[in-house]
Hints:
With 117 residues, the chain is α+β, with helices and mostly antiparallel strands.
Amino acid sequence: MAALTAADKVRLGARTALDKRAIGLVVLDLQGISGVADFFLICSGSSTTQMETIVEAIRQALKAEGVRQHHGEGTPESGWLLLDYGDVVVHVFLDATREFYALERLWGDAPLLSVER
Length: 117
């Protein structure tokens, strides 16, 4: 099985999040802009339970494709869960926490990657 590219990983993660009814999903293309990652997948859940559901679904979908998670951070109660796959970083927020950290504004010069369902 061929390894997934960063774009493949983030698209799979995005489709999976959307299947779990993620809110306000965006994918920032950070290639050439940041050494942190190639892509940020940012979305919100309407509750801590939905946040956990989204994160677990993304973990399982990527694991099924042989993609190993490097690191995870946060708790649902903090309003922010992070999954680090090296070239792809997934951020799942509650709305208030997402507004506070404003990653989309912080990385406002990053183009958006289109994600088809």
